Amino acid sequence: MPSFTVDLKDAVDPLVLAVDVGSTASRGGLYDGRGLPVDRMKHKVPHAFTTATDGTSVIDPLQVVDEVAAIIDALARPELAGRIAGVALDTFASSLVGVDAAGEPLTPCYTYADSRCAPQVNTLRAELDEAQVQQRTGTRLHSSYLPARLRWLHETHPGVVARVRRWMSLGELVVLRLTGTTAVGTSTAAWTGLLDRLTGTWDEGMLAVAGITPDTLSPVHHPDQPLTGLTTRWPALAGAAWFPVVTDGLAANIGTGATDARTVVASFATSGAVRVRVPAEVPELPSGLWAYRVDAEHALLGGALNDVGRAVSWLEATLKLDGVDLDGVLAADPDPTTPLALPFLTGERSTGWAADARAVVAGLSAASTPAAIARGLLEGVALSYGRVVTELTRVAPRPEQILASGRMSQSLPHLLQLLADVTGVPVTPVTIKRSTLHGTALLALESLAPQVERAAPTTAATVEPVAGRADYYAERAERFAALYSAVVG
């Protein structure tokens, strides 16, 4: 497999220092003007969300600030002064931190997986026309978005809310703490559920619903509108532009090499998503999808899954799969006795948006083995991806290929065979590491080095659908829908 890296001595200027704050770690790396990662110029700081059975999913925001600072310490070497032209940051979406007038956090960082505001989601659905909200903002009413989360905070922590002067995403806070100023990228703003998807400005109606005003939010910047003239403690970053924080979803699409509406990207990480870049003016959205405005001209259309890598971790920890070759289990031919699963360990986003949904395994018998249960749960994950792809074809061209990225696509490659068989679409694995980080760097390079030709990401052999399995998965999809209707509603 060809190398997708470059030695520092051969790197083409300008360089970009990119940082990706994900669900399990903060990662950083240097990229040259072609988008190639610079060899041995990377740094990683692991972390974990704090979770609880009541739906809590948070992380200490100042811990993440320190992680990003440590990454920059490791990469912004003094001898690189004048070569690093930009700093680019992406984070998981969505996130929320309340800060006081001095920029000190008053709350933890609430992550997309925190579902404690599920009751407020139900209240908002009773108050509002959810279909109209979705058409205006591109998002449904759900616990991963901010209208319900801010309602929950007003109701449960009114004293804290009264002290908050600004509401920020995690990435905005990181940039503020490291540079003294901040802005929010268009995609990060869109992932809040508070942005008008057609105008790209804050939606005053949804701000009122959330109980906040525009002056408590950061200005919205497109990816080509960086912050400049900033002073930081790193001499190597003197004169570098700091780009507005973007979402990991946008970065992942860019980083895998998707260029048009016929190429869909499926991300396989702790969570998962299916996304395609389309013109921003999508006239009408299917109810199961979101459309996030990402720049002056485009939106990302798609859907998200809470539990992909998280489902694998749960299987390994709970079913004690020691000695079981999980990828080998997925490589086997389909078996009609495999249990059927709704894989919603931490709630559902697309396509039903049931924030309080939980996993269900049906069809267990005395003969069901841990391997069979694992196969059933991961078939359920693949069927969930398939439901999103089906919704996409209502408003976008039928995909000619699916590009797959993320650590789970490499650690369990036969997940991609499940996806190809469920959707009937060829799946091409993108083999570069840290495709999200790569995309974050590429977004900055569009402004910093538009004249430099980018290196194409490396890929592995395309996984073709097995025609003889189409009927099996069609029947599974029907049973999945029936079970979902009966249990989730």
Characterize the structure shown.
The protein has 489 residues and is α/β, with parallel strands linked by helices. Helices cover 34% and strands 20% of the residues. Strands 1, 2, 3, 6, 12 and 13 form a 6-stranded mixed β-sheet that branches. α4 runs parallel beside α8 and α9 crosses α15. The radius of gyration is 22 Å and the shape is globular.
What's the SSE blueprint?
Blueprint: E1 15-21, E2 25-31, E3 37-46, E4 50-51, E5 57-59, H1 61-75, E6 84-91, E7 95-99, E8 109-111, H2 118-127, H3 130-137, H4 146-156, H5 158-163, E9 166-168, H6 170-179, E10 184-185, H7 186-190, H8 204-210, E11 220-221, E12 241-242, E13 246-247, H9 248-256, E14 263-268, E15 272-279, E16 290-293, E17 298-305, H10 309-318, H11 326-331, E18 340-342, E19 360-362, H12 370-392, E20 401-405, H13 407-411, H14 414-423, E21 427-429, H15 435-448, H16 470-487
Parallel strand pairs: 1-6, 6-12, 6-13, 10-11, 14-20, 20-21
Antiparallel strand pairs: 1-2, 2-3, 4-5, 5-8, 7-8, 7-9, 14-15, 15-17, 16-17, 18-19
Helix pairs in contact: 1-6, 2-4, 4-8, 9-15, 12-14
**Distinct helical segment count:** 16
User: What is the subunit arrangement here?
Assistant: single chain
**Strand elements, count:** 21
| Major sheet size, sense and barrel closure | 6 strands, mixed
Given helix and strand content, the structural type is alpha/beta
* Distance linking N and C termini: 47 Å
Radius of gyration: 22 Å
Ranges where pLDDT stays below 50 over 5 or more residues in a row are none
Mean pLDDT: 95
Which shape, going by the Cα principal axes? globular
Helix content: 25-40%
Strand content: 15-25%
